[in-house]
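Hey, I was hoping to borrow your eyes for a little while. There's a protein on my desk that I can't quite get my head around. The fold is given in discrete form, as structure tokens running alongside the sequence. I'd be grateful if you could look everything over and explain what you see. Here's the protein in full, and shout if anything looks odd to you:
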Amino acid sequence: MNASLSTDTGEMPTFPRLSELPALDDGPQRLGLLAGAGDFPIRFAESARRAGHYVCGLGVAGMASPQLADVCDEFRMKPLARLGFAIRTFRNASVDRVIMAGKIEKTVLFQRFRWLQLLPDWRTIHMWFSYARQNRKDDTLLLAVIREFERDGLRFDSALRYAPELLVKHGFLTKKRPSATQWDDIRFGWQLAREMGRLDVGQTVVVNDMAVMAVEAIEGTDRCIRRAGELCRRGGFTVVKVAKPNQDMRFDVPTVGTETIRSIHESGGRVLAIEAGLTILLNSEEVIELADRLGVAIVAVNVNELGLKAAA
């Protein structure tokens, strides 16, 4: 399914699914990794190198893990607003494809004196005023980054083409399963989460007894869940996290890890519903073991089955 966003230039950027991306070239590739926070960049680099690919990593300072230096063939850290440095680094490394992985804390864009703190180079300034003036939605900003890199012939690809094992498979992942009432909350929350994704607001909605407790925005999934816990003191709520209806698989794919499970448990949640085949599950065995131990049910759902009366 292709979708598009309007831009100031009138062009309509595409949002490719994995199956719609060009076929991979034969043999090992030289991959440039733009790494944000979390375990996703680490897991990607490990998987890509096991498959024989060369990984040139560039981490966002203050966000990316220093552990990336141990799992990439070469690795550097640089502040967020240094696109020119990133482009030169990848060109010097003869990179074939660029991969985005990890969370970028967008809140830095709304701090006081942000320009003095970020000190953007001229390529970042060009990107900002050429491609990101329309709005500051995630898709707008990330597509702007892609367009700036493409000016130098650097093409972006989905990390999941090199690490497909990270996508969650359909079914019940834990011993505990949702009750009939929790399935009602899943179906109710799913529609709302898809709509929030379509609007590029967030990918997570927290529901209890067919009422919305919290909707994810710029703060991210874990803080959204914890806010729901503050508002729903009796606990027992359901977290629904889905892909956008027009999800671009090159960036911002919904991701779940152990911190998500801990946030749900500590905030009083009982169920996590995610979208099968379109959600990254990091350290899956560890996540499932933790969820079983804490009594959190995880189910990976296909959108078609939500029209059915699911049984526990």
